[in-house]
Amino acid sequence: MYALLDLVLIDLHECNHERLLDAEEIREAMLNAAKMMGAEVVVHSFHTFKRWGVSGTVTIAESHLAVHTWPEHNFAAITFETCGKGMDHRKAYKYLIDFFGSRNPKVTHQKRGFVETPAKKEISCKQKSV
Amino acid sequence: MYALLDLVLIDLHECNHERLLDAEEIREAMLNAAKMMGAEVVVHSFHTFKRWGVSGTVTIAESHLAVHTWPEHNFAAITFETCGKGMDHRKAYKYLIDFFGSRNPKVTHQKRGFVETPAKKEISCKQKSV
Predict the structure, then answer these.
(1) With an 8 Å Cβ cutoff, is B107 touching chain A?
(2) How many CB atoms lie within 10 A of CB A124?
(3) CB-based contact (8 Å) between B3 and chain A?
(4) Residue B102 class from Cβ within 10 Å (0-12 exposed, 13-18 middle, 19+ buried)?
(5) Known catalytic residue at B44
(6) By the 8 A CB rule, do A13 and A103 touch?
């Protein structure tokens, strides 16, 4: 069995409060993280919400990234969902831990989308826009 | 401890191949699913990729939904990430299982974003756009 997707959940506790408020700063950080992991960005969308922080998604050729912040908890939840091999998730989340100034980050790795594939067949999942 | 986020992973195997190809049809289905679960849609973005299917994200006031399809595997991976209580995930994913014609769906539920909260304090996470 082969897993099509890597899922990385990055729960950033005890963040720098100011970093959780500005959608444009967070957009730039998420795009930097996408590049650092080796992803190809397709489109991105970030929003500031009244009182409750920022939400953003980055569609990449290899699936997507997402972020949601809770300034009232000094907390940010980041998700990397990527297909294909060779993505440097660690480089990307280390950068984001630093960006958000999290003093208590929790990172978990999972796999999903288990499919049967022919043995020795090399898998490339990278999407091409039409 | 209180979990800020529900994470529902919906792996749809053995889908109807034709349902995995059209970004506009999939956009409509994902927006229907968002409404069915009781979410408030903020923005959405869907893309068709050459050969490899469709990717889409729906930012909701309660976090986000995402979908990625692999027509070559007759497979779709859907993610619901929502905060707050009272979201009807089951109604939404049952609709999507039916939409994609999946004969082998796998659904898993997780929680993330554990924070300390005052006892008896009612949590509302719904975001308001500014």
Answers:
(1) no
(2) 10
(3) no
(4) buried
(5) no
(6) yes
